[in-house]
Amino acid sequence: MLDPKLLRSDLSGVAAQLARRGFVLDVAGFAALEERRKALQIEADKLRAERNAGAKAVGQAKSRGEDVASLLARGDALGAQLLAVEQQLDLVQAEITKRQMELPNILHPSVPDGHDEAANVEVRRWGEPRAFEFTPKDHVAIGEKIGMDFESAGQMSGARFVVLTGPLARLQRALIQFMLDLHTTEHGYREAYVPYLVHARALEGTGQLPKFEQDLFAVKGDPGFYLIPTAEVPVTNLVRDTIIAPEDLPIKYVAHTPCFRSEAGASGRDTRGMIRQHQFEKVELVHIVRPDASYAAHEELTGHAEAVLKALELPYRVVALCAGDIGFHSAKTYDLEVWLPSQQRYREISSCSNFESYQARRLQARWRNPDTGKPEPVHTLNGSGVAAGRALVAVLENYQKADGSVSIPTALAPYMGGLKSLEPGVG
User: Fold this and answer.
1) Catalytic-labelled residue, pool 43, 50, 204, 348
2) Model confidence pLDDT, tens digit, residues 349-376
3) Number of domains observed in the structure of the chain
């Protein structure tokens, strides 16, 4: 949520900032609502003052032994008028809040201009793509020989699901354990185990609702739940309705969870294989920081996700997303894209975003600024550290051999029980 004070003081400026995204702000509608709110607030304050003055007059009249019937009647009338005005004020404020919740975040000045991913800017690359002496296969052709089963998954759940068995399932588990160990022992994160089902309020707090409801899986019941689309949701909600002492910042969490997405906006894209699934595993990094430290934290968080790919010796690049391709609630995002030999291009494996105070305002997540002594919104950041399914895809493709086997990356050897490679027919 944007700062309501900013919307009231510089609505045109906010509209100009949001226009970078291609978002058209209804300036006239917002302005009319704000004028109505102010008028009702003034009227409510006036009626409240009159009612309070009347109550005082009743007390004084009683002390003098005077008849107070007319004063009491006036007080009742003022109370009824005040109630009616307050009800109107609540309705107007609810509409303002609804519109505020539908606004995207303001972009950081360093975000490149542009309308779509073609305008994203490469920041750096690491590693050289391997030169194969044979035509590399994609992860599906490799995986189906060693324990990747789309047919069984399709029979029980439909498209965009997979079953992994044997050493291949162990390889995915090894990736997850490796990432958790790396982030907790070397990068200073606190591991968290969190619910996979959350209420709508949690998703509103992090910005998935109301904008992206079609991308979520709702679970019917009373109360209703949603399956989490990312661990970002429950982990960031850990600081909801809190005031954090400055000495307790920064807070850095890492969590492994399954993630569930309907992929409603991705119809027809990446239908083959594990690139875009309804259910997938992810190791998520979340930072809660002081506002003046958030962009340093953004670079740090991105570096921690990069460390995973470096340790796995997977070539990748870092891309700064442009204004038209960035997430709805992000102020700035870096995507990490890993090299896939079968596609001869880089594909996203992690998004690392700074939301500034956007989520914190929704969550009422604050810290006590020692310079002012007042509670102020913290800044929140998160990033995949990294997506386990896509990391598995990248390992299968980059470590494949001509005979269909797959070498185990050195970093994963301690987690694989002595296995040196995955062999066809052993899944």
Assistant:
1) 348
2) 999 999 999 999 999 999 999 999 999 9
3) 2
